[in-house]
Amino acid sequence: MSDKASPSPLSRAIRIAVAVGLTAFVLWKADVSAVAGATRGIDLRWAGAAVLLVLVDRALNAYRWIALLCALSPGSRPPFTTVLRIFFVSTFVGTFLPSVGGDIYRAYSLAREEVRVSESAASVLMDRVLGVLSIVILAIAAIVLVPRYATDPRVAAALGLASAGCIAVAMCVFSESATSVIQRLSSRLPGARTHRIALTLSEAVRRYSHHRADLLKVLAASIGVQVLRVIQAYCLGRGLGIELPILLYFVFIPLVMLVMQVPVTVAGLGTGQVAFDALFGQVGVPASQAAALSILFIALGFVGNLPGAVLWAFARPRPR
User: Which residues of the chain have pLDDT under 70?
Assistant: First the structure.
């Protein structure tokens, strides 16, 4: 990965500062001792169920990626175990990188498995876009069903940005004229190599227009992943003693996930805590329990990344 793919130290410092500041504010508002008490009292049976569901959603994510690879070129499909290893390692590495750092690492690792760079990058891009689109779909469904719980302007802003991004990529996939515009704009980029990368990536993304059935399957799997994450949050909430129907989790968690996608912090820290507090506070959940749930939900993602840490630590060095 080149230095151009990484943010400046100032940008990274600002994101960390925002994450720490928002998290500290939520903890101060909820009373740190009360949050710690709620966390210590969690029912480990419910927490264990949430951890198992994380492993299931990671495997389903790997399946999505394989399906996207096969759609572009059946010959580009590495073994499932290889894709699973790359996915877990990229999620672990992405914990310490900016928002798309894990995606860049994943595309780079896949290209080293004799997959064309354009195809590896296109598969990662579509994987990310369909993941965001699945969150948007659940969030819109939640807003339609229970609009009184989705009036927060931060939610509206996140939903608008995510929808705009998904629409832009959809135009690149299904509109030949949009692809032509992108290619003309890329010709103005400095450097022949940059131009060539933009050209081949747009062409690879455009090829997905001939595989609509595969895109629908991956989108369905993406929605399944989001459903699993809602159930994970429900398990954590039950473990903390939060007595809410699971329907409300299907309303709140997609909205929380949308807010966490806004790239102003690291790993959704801070914005996630604020979203949990604002949404769950509407139905009478104490601030200490909402803060504990937000921390455990984000920590659950880190737990799901631990297999990647093991695979990364014991990986054999490979020639460049």
Answer: 1-32, 34-35, 38, 73-77, 95-101, 149-152, 154-155, 158, 179, 182-183, 185-198, 261-270, 315-320
Helices (H), the chain: 9-30, 32-40, 44-72, 80-94, 101-111, 117-145, 153-174, 176-186, 192-206, 212-239, 246-261, 271-280, 287-313
Query: Where exactly are the structural domains of the chain?
Result: 7-313
Give me 151's structure tokens: 């009036």
The model carries a pTM of 0.77
What does the pLDDT look like over 66-113, one tens digit per residue? 788 777 766 656 777 777 788 788 877 776 665 566 777 887 887 787
Contacts of 153 (CB under 8 A, 6+ apart): none
List all residues 6 or more positions away from 164 whose beta carbon is below 8 Å from its beta carbon: none
Residue at token pair 């450097």: 191
Neighbours of 41 (CB within 10 A): 11
* Amino acid found at 12: R
The separation between the first and the last C-alpha atoms of the chain, rounded to the nearest angstrom, is 12
CA atoms within 13 A on the CB side of 49: 15
